[in-house]
Amino acid sequence: MISARTAPVSPPATRDLFGSYEPLPGAWDELFVGPGEARPGLRRPLGALLSTGADELASAQGLAERSLLNEGVTFSVYSDDRGSERIFPFCLVPRVISAADWRRIETGLEQRIRALHAFLDDVYGPQRIFTSPRVPAEVVLGSKHYLPQLRGVVPPHGVRIHIAGVDLIRGPDGAFRVLEDNLRTPSGVSYVMENRLVTKRVFPAKFAEARVRRVDHYPARLAELLRGVAPEDDGDPLVVVHTPGPFNSAYFEHSFLARTMGVELVEGPDLQVVGDHLFLRTTRGLRRVHVVYRRVDDAFLDPEVFRPDSMLGVPGLMRVWAAGNVTITNAPGNGVADDKAVCALVPEMVRFYLGEEPIIADVPTFICARDDDRQYVLEHLGELVVKAVDEAGGYGMLMGPQSTAAEREEFRRRILAEPRRYVAQHRVELSTCPTWDPARRVLAPRRVDLRPFILTGRDGSWVLPGGLTRVALREGSYVVNSSQGGGSKDTWVLQEGA
Amino acid sequence: MIARVADHCFWLGRHIERTESTARVLQVTGALALDAELPPVRCWHPVVIVAGQESDFIERYGAAALGDAELVQRYLVSDEDNPVSLRRSVAFARENARTIRDVVSLEVWQTINELHVFLGSEEAEAMYLDGRDGLYARVQRSTQLALGLLRSTMLHDAPLDYVWLGVLLERVSQTARLLDVEHHALLAEGAAHPVLETALWLSLLRGCSGSEAFMKRNRGKVTGAAVAAFLILEPRFPRSVRYCTASARDRLAAICAGDDLPGSRALARLAALERWLVDLSPETLHGGRVHEVLTYVVDEAHAACDAVMSELLGRGAREQGGRESTQPQSQSQTQMQK
User: Fold this and answer.
1) Which of A369, A396, B21, B119 is least surrounded by Cβ atoms within 10 Å, i.e. has the fewest?
2) Please, what sign has the CA dihedral across residues B32, B38, B39, B43?
3) How far is A390 from A52, CA to CA, in rounded Å?
């Protein structure tokens, strides 16, 4: 009791870790406004977290990593022919989003998905939007993910983007912007839930104090959505998750989703089309399948329609879908809307279809298929980030400011050869978040992005409060992809009034 | 249930059981060798035969190496090219479990995955170098835990029936091979010293987790004929050939319930083997007859296993479908073989 008056409340060592954190000049930091100075709105909810010392964090971090390894929360590494797996690197220091910021993200994403739905209905229907001079038909119809065979097909209940993942980044002004959409088979949601489980296990009190919105009801919401979009209302629809197989890098997630929803995980050869319906081959004969949550790309879905060499798909599946006898989530053909060149047109879609202004802005994008854009890009290669429209995972990119003359020359050649394949953006100073550096035992500012997940069914959209925060673990890196040395963090969306 | 999933369940069971059995045999043999009454080759050669790897081992290291305790143990513990080493068996079990991660329970998956991570760790290597008894004990405990968790955390439904069918068929062959190899060696040596002979029979019983159960049944009288009769025919010992055959038949009957369903050929085969065992008189089990009986058991169990695979697990008919490429390559080599 006597010592309580004289001794500091927290021992000096614990002040050091967060107290000595220095945000990166010129970037928005998610937790801090200045050296050692947490954002005012976060000081109360993060009180316990901010007093964590280096020893405590190091041991909790070790515990978290061991737990992820023992649970097999891993992804496969393609380059390794033994099919080996790694844990997705995880940093225990969370990314925190205030209730007010989240409200804006939520409404902005809901608006965006509405516009994208209208666009897909239009592109695979009357194609009205090409009357707008700002949306050139050749950019849209030139996308390799546009599937002209599907024009005129209306999916069951009219839903196309059942599950979306939209990548957001935050610039130095603190505003969120859309970097790109993932409207085909967005992945990462299993890590959102696993990261949360681990965080609650190793930091129970710090987590409870912050009053964070829960994420663990996602599988139940998804299962309800999938059953709700089944083609007919005749009782209990059979839902399956369709995976390319155990060697796919996202297999962990496929089996996670099947397991948490209590549905079958199937591979292509487990399914069979008989007549106009789809069936599951079981040890007791065929069972009718109503909904396929596929994690297989369009091109591999049906060898009769797309790639004839596909072993992953189901011959005749598209026929069953066109007849309205099976729901495929997400609907085939969505790739035309998340093509990186078409993505740049979403603000136009919002205005054209909804008569609204976009709530979340896009990162301004130069489409090399447009003459003046291309001219600008070629003249400013050293300042821009150039991306191939059909690549993902951080591949096929030129980071202008960090590039060599030879790399720039290579991209100049590629752009001139195939302008439709390239877009460019100014490099955004991605926001940072304090991140544990195990070698130096300090917190260092590292770049982050955010992938929220949006579920859309017959009754509209719902945004999972949270999302996957990816972090570029290497100092100075802007690339957050797991295949390029990225890791992840738990994302804490604070409750209203927290 | 999907045939591909049933296949993974079946092999999951077999690899878990095989891992446990191999670890126990290594532990028991290590203890036997410590008494130093037998030349090393007499201790370790049978272990390689029971693992079904005699020809592979000799091809790689030569017959003389069968007496090299260190080499044999390294081969059966961590050799990546030996498909039945503990390391590979656990890796196969784990790969099957990972593929059907949505079917096995979280507890089962964690137990198998932890064992897999452990066997690749420095901790496991340190335990191997430091006496290794603890390592063998830990592998057995983890696999026994997995077998218990399968029953206590999963739906008692078709997937579990397939896992258990795999466990039981593997166990039939393990018990039969252990007994056959040991029986053959003792017979070939002629009359050994009675104390040593008793020690060898007890060691064999321990290798089947059966020494205490045997004593309860036989009131301490350890003879070759009694041990053979116990391990083949005892209806209440969960590792006897008869018990495992009957239990496997029960599992298969549950899987094939219903008249027109596939699996009837496999079921008929197992049922016939069980009837044959029930009719077998213990008095006839001596001398060369034991080897004859065990050969028949192993062949019949193997045939039943083939029938299960072709009738129920879609092996053969669907092999063009690309499924083989997603299976650990050497699974076919872990079929029962004498």
Assistant:
1) A396
2) negative
3) 43
CA dist., res. B245 & res. B304, Å (int)? 10
3-class secondary structure, A289: coil
Dist. CA A25–CA A29, nearest whole Å? 9
Q: Do A270 and B2 touch (CB under 8 A)?
A: yes
pLDDT tens digits, one per residue of A57-82: 999 999 999 998 888 887 766 554 45
- Name the residue with higher pLDDT: B309 or A464: A464
Say what the pLDDT of residue A396 is: 80
C-alpha–C-alpha distance, residues A318 and A332, integer Å: 9
Instruction: Check if B99 contacts A (Cβ < 8 Å).
Output: yes
Query: What gap in Å lies between CA A262 and CA A345, rounded to an integer?
Result: 38
In a 13 Å sphere around the CA of A351, the CA atoms on its Cβ side amount to 9
Residues of A in contact with B101 (CB under 8 A): 72, 252, 255-256, 259
Q: Is A68 on the interface with B (CB under 8 A)?
A: no
| Cβ neighbours for B141, distance < 8 A, ≥ 6 positions apart | none
Task: Indicate yes or no: CB of A283 within 8 angstroms of CB of B109.
Answer: no
Instruction: Burial-class residue A253 by CB neighbours within 10 Å (0-12, 13-18, 19+).
Output: buried
pLDDT at B331 over 80: no
- B264 contact A CB<8A: no
Q: Which of A70, A269, A282 sits opposite B110 (nearest CB)?
A: A70
CA distance A200 to A202: 6
Q: How far is A440 from A149, CA to CA, in rounded Å?
A: 56
Is A287 within 8 Å of chain B by CB?
A: no
The DSSP symbol for A175 reads -
Q: Is A497 exposed, middle or buried (0-12, 13-18, 19+ CB in 10 A)?
A: exposed
Residue contact A72–B98, C-beta within 8 A: yes
In degrees, rounded to 5, the angle at the alpha carbon of residue A44 between the alpha carbons of residues A43 and A48 is: 90
Stretch B291-305: mean pLDDT:
93
Q: What is the pLDDT of residue A435?
A: 97
The β-bridge partners of A34 are A37
Q: What is the CA radius of gyration of chain B?
A: 19
**What are the domain boundaries of chain A?**
364-426
Rounded-to-integer distance, Cα B164 and Cα B184, Å: 30
Q: What pLDDT does residue B258 have?
A: 62
Q: Which of A245, A259, A264 sits opposite B326 (nearest CB)?
A: A245
- Quick check: B262 contacting A, CB < 8 Å? yes
Is the domain A364-426 a CATH 1.20.1640.10 member?
A: no
pLDDT(A226) > 60: yes
Cα atoms in the Cβ-side hemisphere of radius 13 Å centred on B68 = 13
Q: How far apart are the first and last CA of chain A?
A: 32
